[in-house]
């Protein structure tokens, strides 16, 4: 990896194109370096993981709406269209709209992969856009499963490298602003585009995907699932424009009226960003991790710790009135985004939306402690959230920032990077129960790291009732052959719901 300094330049300084961050990202995308076997295996895992969580959400309202919007747009003229999750393989739509619908399905349950550093991210949000373009242009351009793998690997590399160095949330910019560039780069690799074209697409992708973080504040709305899908859709459109010779604002990152100067750290900002050198293998996907539980990633370890406390201290469950307080000592992010440090009363509201509850560590820890388990539907049910003993205990749970857990959260040393903390449970008789956890059980360094077996088990658990056993096995067979898929097989890289299962989208929109 090579370090690159990124700063703001006045217009008269004339920053050369090859010295701009967007150009360097484009060079990564245009580099035809081979993909290693371990990276390919992880790409397959994440394709399966995305299908798992998409299947489980196909009849949730945001997906129903997005699917209706997508199917209102027929395949565009230059390709054969792309598949929409849940629909028959032969029913295709325009690629940017397939990326939209499938992206919403993947994101809805907050249940797929994550990478956390200076910024937060769900890198698998890139996959729907890359696959949609591949399906649309497969036969026209002779694209194969190997091209899809390479595109996904680039998207992960670009997003992870940006997330390691550039914080968006510090300035209340939503993390999907890193998806615009990463998805554009991934599509560029997929299509074998030149550096200039990818450079223009990355600039447009970033310029059109910057938005505020209000989507993750207070009462969280259904837009949370739509936000990354919108970024992926805009990336498809940005690449299309760039391929037609259209240009982007330049320099998009470093300009005196650019993203860094006015949306991030300001005109005096300086970043050090590590990027692969020419010919260097892209391995960033191996630094990312998926979720065993349907909740914000910082909650994963706390669900596991709560389940452990449920087993080891049954008295906490049988007599919750004995608990005087529960204090979770954790990182800055966990405290201020999903903890009591957010100062969001909605995080303690039993009538709050599911999207709000999956960003409330006081709620999540309480339910996991009481139930000794976590379920992507049952744990968020209104009757579960409103149970009197749960509400009473929930109000006693607070979080505090701990400097050491914050340091470990931001560490770039994967061996010490942590997303947990310590919990102190004080009983009304004066006794205190303490425990701690660094990473979730499913994390690569956790108690039960996810491997192919666990990804497949997750898919079968979430998808069998929705798809049927035959469709589950068909998709698993196709996904695990991803690098070998021919152009005429890429349309099989989708999931088809049982006949009659899908809810029809409301017909009172514009499209």
Automatic annotation (TrEMBL):
GO molecular function, one term: lyase activity
Domain MmgE/PrpD C-terminal, residue spans: 293-482
Pfam families found in the cross-reference section: MmgE_PrpD_C (PF19305), MmgE_PrpD_N (PF03972)
InterPro entries with a match to the protein in the record: MmgE/PrpD_sf, MmgE/PrpD_sf_1, MmgE/PrpD_sf_2, MmgE_PrpD, MmgE_PrpD_C, MmgE_PrpD_N
Gene3D superfamilies documented for this protein: 2-methylcitrate dehydratase PrpD
Domain MmgE/PrpD N-terminal: 20-271
Record family assignment: Belongs to the PrpD family.
This protein's name: MmgE/PrpD family protein
Organism, scientific name: Gulosibacter macacae
Organism ancestry: Bacteria, Bacillati, Actinomycetota, Actinomycetes, Micrococcales
């Amino acid at each position: 990896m090579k370090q690159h300094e990124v700063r703001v330049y006045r217009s008269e300084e004339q920053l050369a194109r090859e010295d701009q961050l967007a150009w360097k990202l484009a060079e990564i995308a245009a580099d035809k370096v081979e993909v290693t076997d371990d990276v390919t295996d992880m790409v397959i895992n994440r394709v399966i993981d995305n299908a798992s969580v998409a299947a489980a959400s196909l009849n949730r309202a945001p997906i129903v709406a997005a699917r209706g919007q997508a199917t209102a747009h027929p395949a565009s003229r230059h390709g054969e269209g792309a598949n929409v999750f849940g629909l028959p393989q032969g029913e295709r739509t325009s690629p940017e709209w397939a990326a939209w619908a499938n992206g919403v399905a993947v994101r809805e349950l907050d249940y797929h992969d994550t990478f956390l550093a200076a910024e937060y991210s769900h890198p698998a949000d890139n996959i729907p856009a890359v696959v949609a373009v591949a399906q649309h242009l497969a036969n026209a351009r002779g694209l194969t499963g190997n091209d899809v793998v390479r595109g996904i690997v680039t998207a992960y590399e670009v997003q992870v490298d940006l997330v390691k160095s550039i914080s968006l949330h510090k300035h209340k910019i939503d993390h999907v602003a890193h998806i615009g560039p990463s998805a554009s780069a991934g599509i560029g690799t997929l299509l074998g585009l030149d550096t200039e074209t990818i450079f223009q697409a990355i600039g447009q992708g970033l310029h059109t995907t910057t938005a505020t973080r209000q989507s993750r504040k207070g009462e969280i709305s259904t837009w949370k699932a739509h936000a990354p899908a919108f970024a992926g859709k805009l990336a498809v459109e940005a690449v299309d424009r760039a391929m037609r010779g259209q240009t982007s604002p330049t320099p998009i990152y470093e300009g005196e009226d650019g993203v860094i100067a006015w949306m991030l750290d300001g005109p005096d900002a300086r970043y050090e960003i590590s990027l692969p050198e020419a010919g260097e293998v892209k391995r960033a996907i191996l630094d990312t991790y998926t979720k065993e539980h349907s909740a914000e990633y910082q909650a994963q370890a706390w669900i596991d710790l709560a389940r452990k406390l449920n087993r080891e201290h049954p008295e906490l469950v049988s007599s919750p009135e004995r608990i005087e307080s529960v204090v979770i000592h954790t990182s800055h992010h966990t405290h201020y985004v999903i903890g009591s440090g957010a100062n969001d009363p909605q995080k303690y509201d039993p009538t709050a939306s599911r999207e709000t509850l999956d960003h409330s560590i006081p709620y999540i820890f309480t339910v996991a402690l009481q139930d000794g388990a976590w379920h992507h539907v049952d744990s968020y049910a209104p009757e579960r959230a409103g149970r009197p003993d749960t509400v009473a205990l929930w109000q006693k749970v607070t979080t505090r920032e701990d400097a050491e857990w914050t340091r470990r959260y931001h560490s770039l040393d994967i061996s010490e990077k942590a997303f947990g903390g310590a919990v102190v449970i004080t009983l009304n008789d004066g006794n205190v129960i303490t425990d701690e956890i660094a990473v979730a059980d499913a994390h690569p360094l956790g108690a039960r790291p996810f491997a192919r077996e666990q990804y497949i088990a997750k898919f079968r658990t979430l998808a069998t009732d929705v798809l049927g056993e035959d469709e589950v096995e068909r998709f698993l067979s196709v996904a695990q052959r991803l690098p070998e898929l021919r152009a005429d097989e890429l349309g099989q890289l989708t999931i088809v719901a049982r006949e009659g299962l899908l809810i029809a989208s409301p017909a009172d929109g514009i499209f």
